[in-house]
Amino acid sequence: MKRRNFIAGTAAASLIYSPASHANVTAGNLLKGKAEHVISIWLGGGMGQIDTFDPKRKGDPTKKVAGSYYESISTAVDGVEVCEHLHRVAPLMDRVTAVRSVHHEVIDEHAAATNRMHTGRPVSGTVVYPSIGSIVAHELGAKADGVPPYVLIGYPNLTRGPGFLGAKHGYVYLTDTSQGPAGLSRPDGISPLRQSRRDAFLNQLQANQPKSDDSRLRDYDEVIAQRIKLSGPEFTRNFELDREPSELRKSYGGEFGQRCLLARRLVEQGVRFIEVSHNLNFLNGTGWDVHNGGIVQQHALIQELDQAMSALIVDLEAKQMLDKTLIVITSEFGRPPEFDGGGGRGHQGSAFTCVLAGGGLRHCGAYGQSDELSKKIIQNPVSVPDFFATILASLGIDYTKNIYDGDRPVPLTDNGKPIAHLF
Q1: pLDDT tens across 364-420, in order?
Q2: Is 76 helix (H, G, I), strand (E, B) or coil?
Q3: How many whole angstroms separate alpha carbon 378 and alpha carbon 372?
Q4: Whether the Cβ atoms of residue 392 and residue 272 lie closer than 8 Å to each other
Q5: Residue 13 in this model has a pLDDT that exceeds 90
Q6: 85 near 303, Cβ under 8 Å?
Q7: Is residue 414 exposed (0-12), middle (13-18) or buried (19+ Cβ within 10 Å)?
Q8: Can you list the domains of the chain with their CATH numbers?
Q9: What is d(CA 159, CA 374) in angstroms, rounded to the nearest whole number?
Q10: What are phi and psi of 141, to 5 degrees?
Q11: Collapsing DSSP states into helix, strand and coil, what is residue 37?
Q12: How far is CA 176 from CA 71, 111, 242, 321, in A?
């Protein structure tokens, strides 16, 4: 047995913990953290845990020997190792917990798995469930006036939306950090005077409409009012990243890093939940879905994540905001240790890693344990509802409560239980 495997095994008692860490709680002893914001980093395509935050023995794609694609390195937490391309994050792992035992049953369908990792539930033919971002927006709202509670930096879709909670708990989105949110900026041909006339006309139309008991219409009226308010300079100046020192911008890296920097600026202004998607202009051409030859340049993605994540942690800590901001890294599923016919990897939902950092949690580098090839969970499984309950608990939200689809009660996290040891 290699020394590092022995250390990792013996560290289980102190780092990986027993099922008691998944505590049963009642209303009288709910776990409650003190975080105020979430920056959720979405790695579309399926981040391979065995090649990032749960490394195992080295494999060989040419000889079809299962295992990690890269070497592993030590971190700030004894017995916890990560991929060699996470060398900036490695010294910061005492502020991080790689949850190595997340699981669900969705394997070969990206859309269904993406839905699962945003709503915490299977796709339903009758109910459109809200995303975790919309749940946070619904429960807490924005922390300050003049900002939305939920911002999506990436492409919009139903999976990230408010579901039955209604439009007012949806997101403001943008795909280009240099332009700000879609639909908030006036076209060049619309002068301030012309815009004010439009606003006056809209107010007149709304005033002449009879009152409606339809909550959907009221929601849309609130959304329109919010969009008008957000189109002003007070909010839109948050997207002027050139206000930041050039060295700080450089530390975050390219476009993905600039998205993470923007997320930090939005947190400062009071936005509760920001999702940052890492799914545009992929350096390796395929993103995290590394079938066949897509894995050859996977290291470029890992390095980009490493630079942005480490800069975000250090920046938040320097501004005394890290304990108030929970960083979450998720993906629709993981990857198996075996290599496919082209040397890449398939999909694996039965055991994969999601990451938590900051947020005032009691971090331990790693929680949960997979087997010798990160294929099966052998200790402390964490369901997607459990992971969501941990996020909500860190924000002080009652994760045992119900929300309502009309008159129908719906458990907030599908009865998930937080990872108690992190509190």
Answers
A1: 999 999 999 999 999 999 999 999 999 999 999 999 999 999 999 999 999 999 999
A2: coil
A3: 10
A4: no
A5: no
A6: yes
A7: middle
A8: 3-185+231-422 (3.40.720.10)
A9: 28
A10: 65, 180
A11: strand
A12: 35, 23, 14, 25
